[in-house]
Amino acid sequence: MRRLISICVVFILVSFSNVFGQEVLNSYKYVIVPAQYEFQSSADQYQINSLTKFLFEKKDFDVLLSTDAYPQELAANPCLALKAILVKESGLFTTKVKINLVDCFNATVYSTKLGTSKIKEYQKAYHEAIRDAFDEILEFDYAYNGTVKNNLNNVVAPVAQTQVQQANVVPAPQVTTAVVAETAVSPVAAQTVPAEVEETKVYNIEGTYFIDMWGECKIEPKGDGYAIVGGDENYEFATISKTSKSTMFMVKKTGFSQSQLLELTENGSLQIDTESGVKVYKRVE
């Protein structure tokens, strides 16, 4: 009898998990698959990324590689997409992977089960493990419901929201640009903010960064966005466009038609998906 009850409980929990997972995924229109994961030595090694893209497309998601040009609505609203991160947890004789779906706030909103394979050949092992992990998503009846898009205007960064609650003050009028200066809080509000909140630093994307062969480069205002200049002659080698989220931008290299998603991290650095993996450019000042 106890065994029967245990089986029923497990069945109910799995069913609830599947329903919840489907509702979460229905809120997002796009899935972005990185062109290269951290454990890969080259883009689409073993056709892992192509397979992951194919499986999501099979469930009628709009899927893009991180190196693809983004549709206009996604470029304007990065929160419409989830990023599919493949996590490798392989043992000595077993290939183990799971897929984490991460939102625009870098929070994991859904994780698949751990897919496994004991095949020795790398490509076949990864493919079998990925398909195994994807089984539960294949059972979902995915249908985009526009929830995230409808709520974008009401999105408040978790840290900022917490600060307002702790301070117990009326927030200042919403800033519509991506520029958030350290003095953005009014003098009256600043007097009531607890000490631990005052230590929180909010960065402006304008500044100096170290960017590969260009060395120290500057991001400075240009029109409605920004320009990245570097080198001995201060050459403008990229432009940056704002999105609806103050820490998310679209960067476009001079001479290229496609844009890529750029994130301003909490420590003031820049993070971008490239063909060789995730790149981090540190702030110099």
SSE inventory with pairings:
Layout: H1 2-26, E1 30-33, H2 48-58, E2 62-65, H3 72-76, E3 81-88, E4 95-102, E5 108-111, E6 115-117, H4 122-138, H5 147-151, H6 158-167, H7 187-192, H8 195-198, E7 207-211, E8 215-222, E9 225-230, E10 235-242, E11 248-253, E12 260-264, E13 270-274, E14 277-281
Parallel strand pairs: 1-2, 1-3
Antiparallel strand pairs: 3-4, 4-5, 4-6, 7-8, 8-9, 9-10, 10-11, 11-12, 12-13, 13-14
Structural overview:
- By secondary structure, the chain is α+β, with helices and mostly antiparallel strands.
- The chain has 3 domains: 2-149, Rossmann fold (3-Layer(aba) Sandwich); 156-198, no CATH class; 207-281.
- Helix content is 29%, strand content 28%.
- The chain contains 8 helices and 14 strands.
- Strands 7-8-9-10-11-12-13-14 form an 8-stranded antiparallel sheet, with no helix packed on it. Strands 1, 2, 3, 4, 5 and 6 form a 6-stranded mixed sheet that branches.
- α2 (48-58) packs parallel to α4 (122-138).
- It is globular, with a radius of gyration of 22 Å.
- The model is unreliable at 4-21 and 153-200 (pLDDT under 50).
Properties at a glance:
alpha+beta, six-stranded mixed β-sheet, 28% strand, 285 residues, 29% helix, eight-stranded antiparallel β-sheet, Rossmann fold
Outline of this structure?
This protein is an alpha+beta fold.
> Which fold name corresponds to the CATH topology of the largest domain?
Rossmann fold
- Count the DSSP helices: 8
What is the number of beta strands?
14
At the first level of CATH, the class of the largest domain is Alpha Beta
Q: Please state roughly what percent of the residues sit in beta strands, choosing from under 5%, 5-15%, 15-25%, 25-35%, 35-45% or over 45%.
A: 25-35%
Shape: globular
Low-confidence stretches: 4-21, 153-200
Can you name the CATH architecture of the largest domain?
3-Layer(aba) Sandwich
Q: What's the domain count? A: 3
Give me the secondary-structure category.
Answer: alpha+beta
